[in-house]
Amino acid sequence: MADAGAPILEVADVTLQFGGVSALSDVSLSVGEGEIFSIIGPNGAGKTSLLNCVSGRYRPQQGAIRFRGEDLTRAKPNARCARGIGRTFQNLALYNRMSVLGNILVGRHNQLRNNFITGSLYWLTGADREEIEHRRAAETIIDFLEIAHIRKATTGTLSYGLRKRVELARAMALEPALLLLDEPMAGMNQEEKEDMARFIIDLNEEWGVTIAMIEHDIGAVMDISHRVAVLDFGQRIALGTPEEVMADPRVKQAYLGEDIEAEHDHRAAS
């Protein structure tokens, strides 16, 4: 990737507290247009809390969230979605009794032009053409993620790795400019992780989607990220390229030193 463009996302001095517990403390970072930006840190570091602030699930007590220069700190989640912020979740949030195709079509809700009243005049309002358009978009995503063989399957019957892929498909259906991925490779075997990494890279490079990602697989993060931010106890302790972050002694200390270094050496040797 060439140098990232102007920030698509700016997190400025964000503080989030739950009672007397501080989940985030004066966290600031920016994600450039066109980046794959990863957020890492030990368990409990505040990573998911930060994504929840960006998506609107949590509202910070202090600080600001700006998307393409617009202050969205107090905007509701659906307003952020409408502006181009999509999201997947650490714990899958799919409709398990619905088909894969049905789940993806649910993700098209922000693209709907016909409401219940106009939709009842199906042929007169162009709702039929709109339905064809949405199904065509869903099929494009299905082909991209190589899930055509399960398009009619009931989502709840699928393996965990495939359900993670369906959740990514549903998030893609929103046509986001910024996609927030919360541990997209968690619970996957090595082959599934490699497939997911490939999809993320292609989504960024071919579809032009900016990615902000939480991921515990340090090797995968270092392989595909353009920049990495590190959180520890709700504070940002490092920010830079994967190489810069790996060399930061504070990061090694947060990850108990040799563990993160050994993982990096293993990936480099393989």
From TrEMBL:
<dbReference type="Pfam" id="PF00005">
    <property type="entry name" value="ABC_tran"/>
</dbReference>
<protein>
    <submittedName>
        <fullName>Amino acid/amide ABC transporter ATP-binding protein 1, HAAT family</fullName>
    </submittedName>
</protein>
<dbReference type="InterPro" id="IPR027417">
    <property type="entry name" value="P-loop_NTPase"/>
</dbReference>
<keyword id="KW-0067">ATP-binding</keyword>
<dbReference type="InterPro" id="IPR051120">
    <property type="entry name" value="ABC_AA/LPS_Transport"/>
</dbReference>
<dbReference type="Pfam" id="PF12399">
    <property type="entry name" value="BCA_ABC_TP_C"/>
</dbReference>
<dbReference type="InterPro" id="IPR003439">
    <property type="entry name" value="ABC_transporter-like_ATP-bd"/>
</dbReference>
<feature type="domain" description="ABC transporter">
    <location>
        <begin position="9"/>
        <end position="258"/>
    </location>
</feature>
<dbReference type="GO" id="GO:0016887">
    <property type="term" value="F:ATP hydrolysis activity"/>
</dbReference>
<dbReference type="GO" id="GO:0005886">
    <property type="term" value="C:plasma membrane"/>
</dbReference>
<dbReference type="InterPro" id="IPR032823">
    <property type="entry name" value="BCA_ABC_TP_C"/>
</dbReference>
<dbReference type="InterPro" id="IPR003593">
    <property type="entry name" value="AAA+_ATPase"/>
</dbReference>
<dbReference type="GO" id="GO:0005524">
    <property type="term" value="F:ATP binding"/>
</dbReference>
<keyword id="KW-0547">Nucleotide-binding</keyword>
<keyword id="KW-0813">Transport</keyword>
